[in-house]
Each structure stands twice: as structure tokens, then as C-alpha cells.
Write a structure and sequence with these properties.
The chain is of the alpha/beta class. 41% of the residues lie in helices and 19% in strands. The longest helix has 23 residues. The structure holds zinc ion.
């Protein structure tokens, strides 16, 4: 009885000692093992060439203005269709009509969609608008307001970004299929009564029909004015209200990659109405990466000379890493 008691007490004591030793032993090795599966893997990247994207931007502007329904827009569509097809992407146009109320002008519009991995039913969207505003309404010199303007950063920069990204389509890692989308009719406006966002509203409506065929859009990232000099992308307020999870994913990635144009600690000075609003209203969580303090916005001076590679480069690094990680 006594020896059995002693044996039991000895075993108990040994177990207590083993537990205490484990509990208080220097913990580095366990901490390392714990941390290894929590430190994100190095961010996947592609050799995105922002200087080449700027050449694309110049080529887009060499067409001249690209107002919805104009010959310039048609030229741009032909150029982009050829370009995206040459990169092996599946290209289609969503065609529709839209009316400008103030002039009762109805024009043929078309969203361009270039698909990476078109067979995948679960998809994400990287988008921009590719029409230009009919007049430079922010010109301080009133005489210049009715003149056409190139809109290099406003519209052009997003398109140039998608053109360069498409060159790396095969190297991008993503469990989702990717739709590169150029919206028409973002700013087919002359007067206050005119509607914005014709293309994104049409896209959101069509997405509901696509859902019946099993196509699911996880989310969308809208790019607008990303190639200004020393660009700043604070968290756009409507994006935060409507798609906070996506904001967190993108800005966390930006912090990790030290993409300092992304200002994770600041909100935009005002909520921005842009193509991401109709997408959110249509059930697709969408955020807007926009440098709304670009000094040449809606002015004659929005030209390729006032654009720079920095923002294109940072946006590419953040989005490529983010696409690799999302599930
Ligand atoms: Zn604009």
C-alpha cells in the first residue's frame, strides 16, 4: 500500500516537474514555430514596368479626347481590343445605349472586359473608366472650359495600368478569375442634371444576370487618377462605409510592402462618388483607389507630362501581392 502510494506520488511529482519545466523553459523555439505560420509569405510579384505603362498612357492620349460615343473612343476601343487579345486575354464588349439628359443626346456605349482565366466562375474585378469628360470644367480660365482635354490621369492612367498588367497575366497568381474592366460613360456630363456612371451601372445590372449562370464576383478595385506626381491614396470614405473588409485587405498589404502612397491612417477629405458606388449598390463590394488631390483634375493640364510612374508601381505591387493571398 505504502510503496504503491509512494510510486503514485513519484509519478505525479514527475508529471508536475515536466509540466513546470515546459511552462517556464525559455520559449524561443516554440515561439518561432508559432510565428512561422503567421508571418505572411514573401509577397508574390511580377515585373510590372511602370515606365512602359507611361508609354501606354502617352499612346492613349495621342488618340486625343475619348468622349463616349466619339471617334476617339472608338479608336481607343480598337487599340485596347488588339492589345488585350495579343496578351491572350478573352475580350468582349458590353454594349448599351445611354442618354445625356441636358442635350438629349443618346450614344452607343460599351464596357470593355478583358478576362484572365475566363473559365473560373469565382472572379474579381480590377476596373477603371476609359471615357473622358467633354469639357474641362475645373479650368480657372473660363474661356478654356469648353475646350477638349486629354484627361491623361483621369481615365488614362487606369487604362494604361491594366494594359501593362495584362502583359503579366500568366505570372499573376490568384485563385479567382480576373476581369479587367474599362467602364464607358463615367462622365458623359455637361450639366448638373446629367447622370454619371452609365457603364458601371450597366455592369452591375448585368452581373445580377451573370449570377444566374454561376458567375460570382468576390469584389472590385477601382483605379482612378493613380499616376499623378507624388500621389496619395487615403482611404476613400464610401469605400470604407461599403466595403471595409476589402479596404483592410488592401491597406494591410500596402503597409507590409511599404507602399507609402497608400495612406492607411487617413480618410479622403470627402466621400467620392465614382464607379465603385453602383458596383456596391449592385452587391459587389468595391473600393476606389483615387488621388483626389491631383492638381490637374478636369483641367487642360491633365497631360502625360504631369503623370509619373510612382503610383502605377505601388498600385501594381499591392494588387499583385493581394491577389495571390485572397481566398
Ligand atoms: Zn473625371
Amino acid at each position: 500500500m505504502t510503496s504503491r502510494w509512494l510510486w503514485g506520488a513519484g509519478l505525479m511529482g514527475t508529471l508536475v516537474c515536466v509540466f513546470l519545466a515546459w511552462r517556464w523553459w525559455p520559449q524561443e523555439s516554440r515561439a518561432d514555430a508559432f510565428a512561422q505560420d503567421r508571418v505572411p509569405a514573401p509577397a508574390h510579384q511580377v515585373p510590372f514596368d511602370s515606365q512602359r505603362a507611361l508609354k501606354d498612357l502617352s499612346a492613349i492620349c495621342a488618340i486625343g479626347t475619348r468622349v463616349s460615343g466619339s471617334a476617339g473612343m472608338q479608336k481607343q476601343q480598337e487599340m485596347l481590343e488588339k492589345h488585350f487579345k495579343a496578351q491572350g486575354l478573352d475580350v468582349s464588349f458590353q454594349r448599351f445605349q445611354a442618354t445625356r439628359k441636358s442635350t438629349r443626346t443618346t450614344v452607343e456605349m460599351a464596357n470593355l472586359i478583358a478576362r484572365i482565366n475566363p473559365e473560373k466562375q469565382n472572379r474579381i474585378i480590377l476596373c477603371t473608366h476609359y471615357d473622358t469628360r467633354p469639357r474641362a470644367d475645373q479650368e480657372t480660365d473660363r474661356a478654356k472650359r469648353d475646350a477638349p482635354f486629354l484627361s491623361a490621369n483621369d481615365g488614362g492612367s487606369g487604362v494604361a495600368f491594366l494594359m501593362e498588367l495584362a502583359r503579366h497575366a500568366k505570372s499573376i497568381k490568384c485563385v479567382y478569375g480576373i476581369d479587367l474592366v474599362c467602364f464607358d460613360g463615367e462622365e458623359f456630363v455637361l450639366d448638373q442634371e446629367d447622370d454619371y456612371f452609365h457603364g458601371s451601372r450597366h455592369f452591375a445590372t448585368r452581373a445580377r444576370l451573370d449570377a444566374q449562370r454561376g458567375i460570382r464576383y468576390r469584389c472590385a478595385v477601382l483605379l482612378d487618377m493613380i499616376a499623378g506626381k507624388n500621389p496619395r491614396f487615403p482611404i476613400e470614405q464610401n469605400s470604407w462605409f461599403k466595403a471595409p473588409r476589402l479596404v483592410e485587405e488592401i491597406y494591410t498589404t500596402a503597409i507590409e510592402l511599404k507602399a507609402t502612397s497608400f495612406q492607411a491612417n487617413k480618410y479622403s477629405s470627402t466621400p467620392v462618388e465614382d464607379d465603385h458606388v453602383p458596383l456596391n449598390n449592385g452587391g459587389i463590394p468595391a473600393i476606389d483607389l483615387i488621388d483626389f488631390d491631383y492638381p490637374h483634375w478636369h483641367k487642360m493640364s491633365d497631360t502625360p507630362e504631369n503623370c509619373a510612374p510612382e503610383g502605377l508601381d505601388q498600385v501594381s505591387r499591392v494588387l499583385v501581392a493581394w491577389m495571390d493571398r485572397i481566398r
